[in-house]
Structures are given as C-alpha cells and as structure tokens.
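SAMPLE LOG
Freezer: B-3
Tube label: C17
Construct: single chain, 221 aa
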Amino acid sequence: MKIDLRDTETLWINLDSAKKNAEQMVEQFDRLGIKNHKRISARVIPPPALPPVKLRAFGKHFVGCGQSHIDALSAAKGVPFLVLEDDAAVTDSFFPVLDVPEGTDAVYLGVSHGNAKQVIVDQGNGWMRIGGMLTTHAILYLSETFAAHARQVTRECIYTRNLPLDNGFAALQRIYKVLAYHKPMFVQSDLRESANKWERLTSAPLRATHKIVNNQAIPLT
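STRUCTURE (predicted):
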C-alpha cells in the first residue's frame, strides 16, 4: 500500500499563542511539498484535581492535549490522514512516499523511547511493529476503525481515567497493527515552544526488542 504524504490530508495541532511554531510548521510543509494541511486550534483545558506528583508527571496540559487530538481526529475527512503536533520537526530520514505493509492500521512517523517496557518487533524493510509506545506527535491513520477507537480511548483517558492520551494509544497498539519506520521521520524538537522537551526520547532509531514465537512476543536475548 503506497501512501504519498505530500497528498495526504494533514491536520496539525497548534496553540493560538504559539505563533512561531505555526510559522515553522507552514515553512516545513512548504519545504516538504505537503499541500493538503489544516491547522487545528489546540485546546487549553484545566486539569482535574490530582495529587501534585501526578500533575507533574502528566503535565497540566494533558486534558487540553487529548481534546485537541479528538478535534483533529473528528476533523479528518477520511483515511489516510496524518496528525502532527506543532513541535514535530522533520528529520533527514523523511521520505514522502511510503510503501506500507497491507493490513496496517496506523504508522508512527515519530517514535519514543520513553517506555522501557515497549515491544518492538522487526517486520523487515525498515518497518517495526510497536506495542506500548508513549507518544502521539506524528501518527498516520490508515483505518477508520483505528481512528474511531483512538477517539474513544482518548476521551476515556482524559475525562474518565485522568490519564494522558498516549497511555490509551499504547494499549491500542497491542490490539491493532501499528507500525513505525525504524528511523524517525519527525522528532519533538526542543527548539519549538512546548510544555515538555522530549527530543532526546524521540530522536534515536528503533531497534527490535522482541521476536514472535508461536504468536507470542519473546524478548530478544
């Protein structure tokens, strides 16, 4: 299944106050030849009353971030579509035409090493199947079912379970076929305005952590 990112509907989340980020995103799209893009105004929603240690871990913006992703998912006209956060900076590993294995529900164009327990399985040709990955800064949605479930789990996380949305996405990766390219195409740039600085966790390539034996993920030794 070939996907040309230059023609793919792209929805990017940006705070109204983060004008420099918006300028940099538009410049980036122009440079990459991505023509079909739309800005989604990011939400600012106060967090629930949680213990200070949890608020420090989650960030006071986690509800607004989750609702902003719901807004982006709801605005998409249909798959395939790409959702980017406005700290997503392109890397030298970007290439516009992806040859994605059939049956893939989503592709992470940005990765994270923030969960030591995540499961990464080599699929060949640079593709890795992921499970438990905690990030949402650059996701290509390929199935309507996955997109609908992503909306649902995001709503549950931020309004019922009081958790950041990437916890729900990490669980979805164990249900759906979610792949990532081993070299991240977008990182969360420390040079962009953002509540957190995650470039060190999002810039390194992926390496396999597990192999599949009898339909079970077995850690590599």
